[in-house]
Amino acid sequence: MTSHSKIEQAALQLFGERGYDSTSTQLIARQAGVSEALLFKYFLSKEKLFEYLIKQGFRRIVEANRGILTEKNPRTLIENVIDLPYKLVHDEPDFWKMQDKEFNRPLVQKYFQRFMSPIDNLLKQAFTEVGADAPDLNTLQLLLLIQSLWRNLLYEHNAPLSQLRAHLKRTHVPAAA
Question: Which of 9, 41, 83, 122 is most buried per CB count within 10 Å?
Fold first, then answer.
């Protein structure tokens, strides 16, 4: 693993555990096993490191979940969106912990909204295609549940949260006509 990758990994973990304000560059460097000077050589500042982690994290997530945006079957699309928080937390737990800790920062909000915006539009269209009575309200309800779900999945690993996935699919994905 490169020094750059070690710094990224250490920063993700520490920002997720402690938050941005409670994590020093000295602590990140120590955990990564590099000098603080090397951290600054790669990232210039703690703020630039944080920006890099947010941008790269969302880039990875968009790439890994691109198929959701191209799904043509509306029922499958709705199921995929329900599966999304389980997949995201499983694939990138440190990133989502950092995201959760720093959710009120404008940069985090910007990238989160950029990620969610196309999903919102696709869900509305999918709910319309399956004949939902109120596609806009169904979309809002499901997206709020999903946002709450990914945050809970970060910290709780219990059976009811796992069972909730099947329940959401039964509730939100109408049977084929």
Answer: 122
